[in-house]
Amino acid sequence: MKRPQTTLLLLAAAGLATGLAACASAGGSSDGGPRRDPNVITAEELVDFATTNALDAIRRLRPRWLQGRGNLRPTVVVDGARMDNLEDALQSIQAASVRTMRYMSASDATMRFGTNFQGGAIEVTTRGG
């Protein structure tokens, strides 16, 4: 029969090992690289897509940005200017000219840009902007 101190020591060691394993696995991405923000695409991520447009890059890297909510699709804002058509706006931007692209929820976009962003926003900052 085990003594109570031994049982408590074993339980404490198991808890410590589990805690350390959880901390170690939460550090970065599964490939050992830095964890990427799901709401931001940087110029560094776009290096492999330099010959494509921003729409194709988003389709490959963050396709969920384009889904929208119901019939409400995100509005595109390029260097502070609101664009009318999501596909046309993003297709007209070469990925090589993008500094960052950021997805914003409807509430974040409304707080930043004002009203009528029910589908959220994709903010594009170009290297020239």
Structure overview:
Helices cover 34% and strands 17% of the residues. It has 129 residues and is α+β, with helices and mostly antiparallel strands. A five-stranded mixed sheet has the order 1-4-5-2-3. The protein starts with a helix and ends with a strand. Mean pLDDT is 82; it is low at 16-30.
Distinctive features:
129 residues, alpha+beta, five-stranded mixed β-sheet, 5 strands, globular
Secondary-structure blueprint of this entry?
Elements: H1 4-25, E1 40-42, H2 54-61, E2 75-78, E3 81-82, H3 86-91, E4 98-104, H4 106-113, E5 121-126
Parallel strand pairs: 2-5
Antiparallel strand pairs: 1-4, 2-3, 4-5
- Global shape: globular
Strand order of the largest sheet: 1-4-5-2-3
Strand content: 15-25%
SSE run: HEHEEHEHE
Radius of gyration: 22 Å
Percent range for helical residues?
A: 25-40%
Number of strands: 5
The average pLDDT score comes to 82
Distance from first to last alpha carbon: 74 Å
How is this structure best summarized?
The protein contains four helices and five strands. The longest helix has 22 residues. The chain is globular.
